[in-house]
């Protein structure tokens, strides 16, 4: 599995934590930026990452911002990207299980650091249920 990851300035710190976590689990990733906490426009980083998912250059996508809302909106503009805002592990589990989400958006200002990696792991480890979904 290869995961694209991108953030704006408000999600940069959590993006760096997710990258370290993915590396520790030997999960390949590609970082689309931003590369610091300097104010920036999130679509500049989210759109290229979503394009990579759309083009099947990566298997999944994680985007991060202040609330995660704008990032999810941008990601979902690309055909084939199914990005769900996940504020807890249950949302991440259902995003995969029922919605076959191939992308998640996380809000750094809305969740605690202790929740972040649980959300990511739950989303990565959960299988799509299929069937009526």
**Percent of residues in helical segments?**
40-55%
The main sheet comes to: 5 strands, parallel
Report the mean per-residue pLDDT as an integer: 97
Report the C-alpha radius of gyration, rounded: 13 Å
For the largest sheet, list the strands in their spatial order.
2-1-3-5-4
The oligomeric state of the chains shown is single chain
Overall outline: globular
- Approximately what portion of the residues adopt beta-strand conformation? 15-25%
- End-to-end gap: 23 Å
Low-pLDDT segments:
none
Count of distinct strands: 5
H/E topology pattern: EHEHEHEHEH
What does this 3D model show about the protein?
- The chain is of the alpha/beta class and 133 residues long.
- It contains five helices and five strands.
- It has helices at 12-24, 43-54, 69-75, 89-97, 113-125; strands at residues 2-7, 28-31, 60-65, 83-85, 103-107.
- A five-stranded parallel β-sheet has the order 2-1-3-5-4, sandwiched between helices.
- Strand 4 (83-85), helix 4 (89-97) and strand 5 form a beta-alpha-beta unit.
- Helix 1 packs across helix 5 (113-125).
- The radius of gyration is 13 Å and the shape is globular.
- The model has no long low-confidence stretch (mean pLDDT 97).
Nutshell version of this structure?
With 133 residues, the chain is α/β, with parallel strands linked by helices. The chain is built from five helices and five strands; from the N terminus they run E-H-E-H-E-H-E-H-E-H. The protein has helices spanning 12-24, 43-54, 69-75, 89-97, 113-125; strands spanning 2-7, 28-31, 60-65, 83-85, 103-107.
């Amino acid at each position: 599995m290869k995961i694209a990851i991108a953030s704006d300035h408000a999600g940069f710190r959590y993006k760096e934590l997710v990258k370290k976590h993915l590396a520790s689990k030997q999960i390949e990733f590609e970082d689309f930026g931003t590369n610091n906490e300097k104010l920036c426009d999130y679509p500049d980083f989210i759109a290229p990452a979503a394009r990579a998912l759309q083009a099947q250059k990566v298997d999944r996508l994680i985007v991060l911002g202040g609330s995660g809302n704008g990032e999810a909106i941008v990601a979902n503009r690309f055909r084939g990207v199914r990005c769900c805002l996940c504020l807890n592990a249950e949302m991440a589990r259902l995003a995969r299980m029922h919605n076959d989400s191939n992308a998640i958006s996380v809000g750094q200002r809305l969740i605690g650091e202790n929740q972040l990696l649980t959300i990511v792991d739950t989303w990565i480890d959960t299988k799509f249920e299929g069937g009526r979904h």
